[in-house]
Amino acid sequence: MPPSTRVIGAYAAQPDDPALRPEFVQRVLELDGVTGLEIPFGAAVYRQDEEWLWRSLPRGGRHVFTLIGATMEALGADPAFGLASDDDAARAAALQLLAAARDAVAQVAAAGQQVTAVCLHTAPRRVVGAATGNGAALRASLREAAAWDWGGAALVVEHCDAPVGDRPVQKGFLPLADEIAAVAEVAAAQSNTPVGLSVNWGRSAIEARSAAGPLEHLAQARAAGVLVGFVLSGAGAEPGAYGPAWQDAHLALRGSADDGGEPTSLLTPQLAAQALRSAGDGLLFDGVKLAVRPQDATLEQRLAVVRRAWDALVAQT
Predict the structure, then answer these.
(1) Do 232 and 309 form a contact (C-beta atoms < 8 A)?
(2) Phi then psi dihedrals of residue 88, to 5 deg
(3) Inter-residue contact 217 to 174 (CB < 8 Å)
(4) What is the pTM of this model?
(5) Disulfide engineering: 84 pairs with which of 133, 163, 172, 181, CB 3.0-4.6 Å?
């Protein structure tokens, strides 16, 4: 059975022109089986779109909040920021962002929408000689936040690429094993709020430098009983229209640009199907999040990119 919440991260694919975004979102929500959006709560793009966005969404939608944009923006101002931070003040600031998301979840519910999950991230980046993240700090943050009233929404750690040797990172947050241990401990210790973990195909591929990475991460999370979410998002092993290799740029599925594909993407429809089978049943949510190149792509070209990935998702259910 498919999850009850199936979302599209439309913000990653939407036009640069704000005047075109409402129509794009409306067209995305018309795809078969879409329950709502992955919404970048707290990020600059959310603040820009917030007013028209909630007016445009039909009542009864089921959505997912992601804090990755707001987290990366906060890290730009304070590299110690994060829910897994060794720095008490920086960890408190990350909890303030999470508290703002909690308040927004309640406001959304009062307006006839539902937030199924709030995806959080295990910043800060692990850098030698600076405040870094650890599992103990993450557990403390999760324990505190899980005690709040989330109105039924789950707290979900979305795994991002962790450091591997001295290789450059995109996010460089906690290793998956540390995240799984913290999530499992907090989930077992309380029952007020569901707590789980989500895998993003592209980010796991970036960490592993391989299309095998997402399958390995899905298997580990499932074995630990903490997997609740999965998002299809591409990555590339060579430079292309989306930039250098191994960038967290949300590449389209592999294919011709003429049919909404990206030739350098590792993510094929077949690999998407394999990952979705590996994720299995019992998820709270799944979805797709893809960017579009070129930057001046038309509305129809953007919709073709999203539709192709969405078709790969729903074909498995």
Answers:
(1) yes
(2) -60, -45
(3) no
(4) 0.96
(5) 133
